[in-house]
Design goal:
Strand order of the largest sheet of chain B: 1-2
Number of helices of chain A: 5
Mean pLDDT of chain A: 81
Structural class of chain B: mainly alpha
Radius of gyration of chain B: 23 Å
Low-confidence stretches of chain B: none
Order of helices and strands of chain B: HHEEHHHHHHH
Helix content of chain B: over 70%
Oligomer: heterodimer
Structural class of chain A: mainly alpha
Radius of gyration of chain A: 23 Å
Number of helices of chain B: 9
Number of strands of chain A: 0
Distance between the termini of chain B: 51 Å
Number of strands of chain B: 2
Number of domains of chain B: 1
Order of helices and strands of chain A: HHHHH
Chain lengths: 120, 265
């Protein structure tokens, strides 16, 4: 009886266990496009924040919806950049990968230094 | 000892599900990225809702969070694209394992400091109860792991086949043992660093520890781990010598000074 009732659960568990890993989920081009879109959007938000802070008066203070629209357009421009030049896209990718390589090493050095100096 | 033995089984047993180790690695790196991006943004801007704070640019809280998450996910996705394109996830995992072992290499230096302190003061120091609690927790996890494997052998597998169940229990046991062990080792620096950074390090080292390598990859990982441990050890030793915090030498100096004072009196 149990076997009949819990087939769906077994299927669900099997599918969960067989999910593709984060390195197999999407193809590199789509990942790069999403990545550059996200970075572009973030840079857009930063640009608006700088603009709001540096420009005098309240006229420059955009409504949140407008801010996000502007930021998204920045992200869209980033994605457009990929279509225009794969060199830009590759540079983005390599720089991000370099950061991912250097960060754990730097963090480990920081932690080792502090661990040695820490009280026992 | 038992936990070490469990980790050594990694040579024979693959961790399952296959996506777990890469996911842990990426989560760990993402936490470190968040810490790094926040630090970088905080140089020029601050998270304050609609008000100026000194020379820094004030960013509303929601925008600040969106900015950090956009940057970090963007960098992570772009880097995954490169890893995927060149099929170098194994090499990246070996680098992370190298970093993790380097951190573990410092433990020997700390033990040396402890012994030196004992010679000087006749006291071991440290919180004995906390240490006992940690050791008992580790023992409990290992015992429960063995019990579950025994239960699966007697009463049948919980997941798919018996082999898969054993692999799964081994994976979870290793994950917990590594994460708790590393958390214990990083305890002295917990106050100095952001919680995200510590969590990130624990996650990426645990993920690298569970990463499934082919036979050659496993050999390279073992060699890289040993080199990392040695480099961590000597790097820590160099810092200790440079800072002139050599307790044994200092202890001897104090002893000689005491003897001199005693002789004079």
């Amino acid at each position: 009886m149990n076997e009949v009732h819990f087939v769906w659960l077994q299927t669900l568990v099997d599918e969960f266990l067989d999910m593709p890993g984060p390195f197999q989920m999407l193809n590199p081009e789509i990942l790069l496009m999403l990545g550059i879109g996200a970075i572009g959007t973030a840079v857009g938000l930063l640009a608006i924040s700088v603009m709001n802070a540096r420009m005098p008066g309240d006229n420059m203070n955009m409504q949140p919806r407008m801010r996000y629209l502007f930021a998204l357009s920045f992200g869209g421009t980033g994605i457009g950049g990929i279509r225009y030049s794969s060199l830009i896209a590759d540079t983005y990718g390599y720089l991000s990968f370099a950061l991912l390589l250097l960060l754990p090493v730097g963090v480990s050095i920081l932690i080792i230094k502090e661990l040695v100096r820490a009280d026992i | 000892m038992i936990s070490r033995l469990i980790l050594q089984l990694g040579f024979l047993i693959d961790s399952v599900p296959l996506w777990l180790a890469p996911l842990l690695v990426l989560l760990g790196v993402e936490f470190i990225l968040i810490w790094h991006i926040e630090q970088s943004i905080n140089v020029v801007a601050s998270e304050k809702p609609n008000q100026k704070s000194g020379d820094k640019i004030a960013i509303p809280t929601r925008d600040y969070k969106l900015l950090v998450s956009g940057m970090t996910f963007g960098i992570l996705l772009s880097a995954i694209a490169v890893i995927q394109e060149f099929q170098i996830s194994n090499i990246y995992a070996i680098l992370l394992l190298f970093c993790g072992r380097a951190i573990e290499g410092v433990a020997a230096i700390r033990f040396y400091k402890k012994v030196s302190r004992f010679i000087r003061t006749r006291e071991w120091g440290g919180d004995f109860r906390a240490k006992m609690k940690h050791k008992l927790t580790m023992l409990f996890i290992v015992v429960v792991g063995f019990y579950l494997i025994g239960y699966a052998i007697v009463h049948g597998p919980f997941l798919r086949s018996l082999g898969y169940t054993i692999q799964f229990v081994w994976t979870i046991t290793t994950l917990l043992v590594t994460a708790i062990g590393l958390q214990w080792k990083l305890r002295p620096v917990r106050e100095k660093f952001d919680r995200k950074l510590i969590l990130g390090v624990i996650l990426f080292v645990t993920g690298a520890e569970l990463f499934n390598f082919a036979f050659i990859g496993q050999l390279v990982a073992t060699i890289a781990g040993s080199i990392g441990y040695s480099i961590g050890f000597w790097f820590a030793a160099a810092i200790l010598i440079r800072d002139q915090q050599e307790p044994v030498v200092m202890g001897l100096k104090y002893r000689i000074r005491d003897i001199r004072i005693w002789l004079r009196s």
